Amino acid sequence: MELQFVKFNPSGNTTVLILDPLPREKYPEIAIKIMSDTYLCAEQVGFLEEADEPGALARLHMMGGEFCGNASRSFAGWLALRGSEEAKPEGFREDEKEVRIQVSGQAGTLTVRVQNQWSDHTCNAEIDMPLPLKILHGRNDQLSEYSIVIYEGITHVILWNKVAAEVYVNIVEDFLEKEGLSTDCFGIMFYDSRTSEMVPVVHVKAVDSLVWESSCGSGTVALASALADRQKESIEHLQVRQPGGDLFVSVDWQDSIRGARLSGDILITAVGTTYID
Asked: Are strands 185-192 and 155-160 parallel, antiparallel or unpaired?
């Protein structure tokens, strides 16, 4: 099987977008191969679909039906940069383009502002992120201080000032299940409040993946949302340092979270054909 693809680097969170139409039931097995070192070596995979919402240019469906902020920004950046229906990016010659997209794990459309970097393969993309359905805070003996930020397409657990370790993955999964929360797609964000450094790990059950991501867009917004909820105030352009690069997030607080924006650079690193057995 020959598949056309685009590969992105959004702050290290390498993402492959498959451009050819495929049945959704094929997404997980194709994604597993594409993510492997012997294929395209990516942290995640998304698939191009036609939009079914008015005003949306196209739809991104992630490999496990989850929502991903970095993949959404990359997708919108590609739509702005390509300049045609062809896979090869051609750049755009305005200061900014506003792109509306659909993404799995989120109802409706999302707006992304793509800033021209005057290159055919780089841009900066700021996305209006989905708002949390619920934010919970607590403390226990195993996790110490934690926050749980629940979205339609993913649940993130923030572990405050906890050293990143794989042992917490099973602990968090068991804890979420006991609390009656979904474990289909969840992330753990290990955040050091002294240095503003975050180490993300994300589990997607549909493809049985556990990835220590170089950066996590939705996790970054979950962190800032939890901070805003704890402090009862807005967060403006918080720089969150992650293994693969920095992401910037703002959260509007007015008695509750009313808006969230995520931004960072997008680099298209490869465009081509992959061959799947």
From this structure: parallel
